[in-house]
Amino acid sequence: MLNLLISMALSAALYVFLNTALIAELDGRLLTAARAIPFVLPEDYLDRALSGRTISSADYERNVLQLNRYAEQVGVRYLYVLAMEQGQVRYLADSASPAEVKAGRYGHFLQSYTDQELRFKVALDSGKTYFGEVRDEYGVFRSTAMALPRKGGGFYVLAADISMQSVMAQQNQLKVQAALCCLVLFLMGAGVASILANKMTAPLRRFSLAVRRFAAGEFDVRMPIHRHDELGSLASAFNAMGDAISAREHLLRQLAFTDRLTGLPNRVKFAEALTVVLSKNPLWLAVAMIDLADFRYVNDAFGFEAGDRALCIIADRFSLLQANPVRLVGRVSGNVFALLLSAENESQVQLQMRQIEEALSASLLLGEQKIHIAIRSGIAIFPQHANTAEGLLRHAEVAMFFAKLNREGSVLYDPSREENRLNQFTLLGDLREALQENHLVVYYQPKINVATGQVNAAEALVRWQHPNRGWISPGLFIPFAEKTGKLRGITEWVLHEVLRQQVAWQQTGLRLLISVNVGVSDVEDVQFVDFVEAQLLKAGDAANLCLEITETGVMHKPDVMLQNLARLRCLGVRLSIDDFGTGYSSFAYLAKMPVNELKIDQVFVMSMNSTFESVSIVRSMIEIGHILGLKVVAEGVETIAIWQALAVMGCDEVQGYLIAEPMSSAALVAWLDKASHLPAELTPPSMSNF
Description:
Helix content: 40-55%
Keywords: Membrane, Transmembrane, Transmembrane helix
Domain EAL: 424-676
Radius of gyration: 35 Å
Shape: elongated
Domain GGDEF: 283-415
Distance between the termini: 128 Å
Strand order of the largest sheet: 13-14-16-17-18-19-20-21
GO biological process, one term: signal transduction
Number of domains: 3
GO molecular function: cyclic-guanylate-specific phosphodiesterase activity
CATH architecture of the largest domain: 2-Layer Sandwich
């Protein structure tokens, strides 16, 4: 009986040790997987999600599937990111299988999350990492929630789950092994109990020590196998488990430091290698961040698989440049590569960047199509711009941002431009508030019929009255809003405000054709046309709205645009080509586009005072418009000579500071009440005099 009790006690102790090691391994696996989440997601995803920027459903679902693939590789069930938003724990990212995504069974962006014991809420409130059991709507899990601080205060958590069914299955295996050990010890009999005890005590102590070290994270601990009995089997099982965990840890390290697609170092590994180089106290070095310009169009046109092949080809070309002019290359995000150049001064940097551009200029063959990739690069220099790896990378990224923004080939980091960039981003945040708080104001600039001198139309121009900075020039915030994708919100606000004002004017008997500026991307978007139609239904009269399509945009979907323009015409909206002569339009498209008028850009109009060529260009534009049956409007009229020249050429309408500056709606009404809007010297000239 004593032998049985001893055997049971030893087996129980063995089970406790093995179970402790198992839980430690599982928690270590969960923690390692959770730490890797930022490296699996796109580089700037968490920054955008935590800062409240909108994440599209398509991007979110791709990230859900990407996290699921990574979870399957490292042996966990779910990976997700939670944060406190609007007083509730909400998803910023989740993982799910394709079947679960199809069924909608996953945490959607900013969807609330609740576990029965509110473990994650406690972790978010306290900022402490949680290990333990969690019950939620998806089941019961062994979970880890690693709390990390977020900008502006508070915390968010990187979380990983393993199903308790899986944990219990492994625990049951340990119980079976422990029970077998108990049975073997009991059957050996009382006669050899003392001998077996002496032989087993030392191995069990070693086993216990190994388990404790394993539980502490020393996954390279192994048990020596000198026996062929049950303890030898347990030692073999322990060592096999250690080998599996070590292999998984190696894979995790590889995933954490290597780009899986190209095999190049990722941002973390590149920064580590750069830190090693800096530790050797170099006198001078340069880091370049290179963006493959407009690479998303490759994915759109040929698919992501072809895009991945193109990235691998480009990565190989970068690798062929090592060790001259490139000392180190890494892929730090989707289509951005980091290079450590071998240059020793700025002139060598420019020379080496030209060599890199030449190496990448050769066409890529995707299927039967040849494509050419342009690059936008930013360069930061040690020690002039930064003395740490992260500092150099960040400043090179800032320079790359300006290269992309201004479509320049290569830009050297300039601290003053970064300060301006920060001011612009601050302005972007204020712009969101301006739209919500009605800090924007619509001004109107009248257009005059050249032949009659009557005012029947005006152009709506947006102005921004900032509560702290005062009036902000449209030339400052409109281009930035356009480049950052925020112009649509301004356009829709102006359109809504103009139609509201027209309703008010019509109630007083005033009817004016009001023009609103829109971009090519707007009229290529069916949703924007839907918005216009909805606003027109509210206003009740579309005949007094004209959309001026800015010609400087780039057409990506001309067929869709033509369909949308035809739909707008059916709604009664007049259409105008703005800034004519500076952008996309050709005779072929111009003949197809269902527009009503052409608007000559002020650059050509203003230069009529100084160059004869400009006069000829403007005359040709007017003739082209009239040949196509379109009304022609000239903007930027500031002198009497230009007014008279346009009248002689047959221009239909003009606007500019010679007529009137942009003004508020109330000021426009007062201006219109004047008996005559034109000074005597601006009376339409008689054509018989010419």
